[in-house]
Amino acid sequence: MNIYQKLIEVRKEVPYIQKADKGSQYQYTGSSRVLASLKTKMDELGLLLVPSITKPTLHESPIEYKDDKGNVTKRTTTYFTELEMTMTWINADDPKEQISVPWYGQGVDIAGEKGVGKALTYAEKYFMLKFFNIATDKDDPDSFQQTHGLVNMITSKQVGEAKKMWLELGFSADAINQQTLKLYKKQLTQLTEDLADDFITKLQAMKAEKETA
């Protein structure tokens, strides 16, 4: 496959990510959730994403805290980091085959030393979401798939049924993703509805065989 075909295969892998992480005022999609959902497929296809900073800009904003009498009680500085970047996809099977995309990241920090790191994390997460057109609505995944006419993904009922049968067979909870990766090259929650049915059927057969042994 050429680099474009590989990127399309990655895009097919995750049509939706639920906003499951919570901040003080809103729900959001954590960067680790985004990267974990795509990394396995990227590794499988031999795709590398190389970020580079083309222009960093640092803005400093002094802030004063005053008491009721107007006396300054504390002074701090907010650091706002902006990064103009280039995100480059490289096909490991043919390193000359590359796609470079201009990008941008930003990060706010009080101490100052974490601004670049926050901006890079912001840039990487949103690059993945926007480049692959991954939706992050607050709808639950089942409702989203049905509403938007995408491929039917594993339902919460199937997840619960598969996990229950897996534990009943005597396996550890952590090992279920290893098994689905072995069978379908996907983690449990990344299975389609059809693949989930197939996996549950396999578990039922294993359970029946165990009971008759």
UniProtKB/TrEMBL annotation:
InterPro entries: ERF_bacteria_virus. Pfam families: ERF (PF04404). This is Single-stranded DNA-binding protein. It comes from Paenibacillus ottowii.
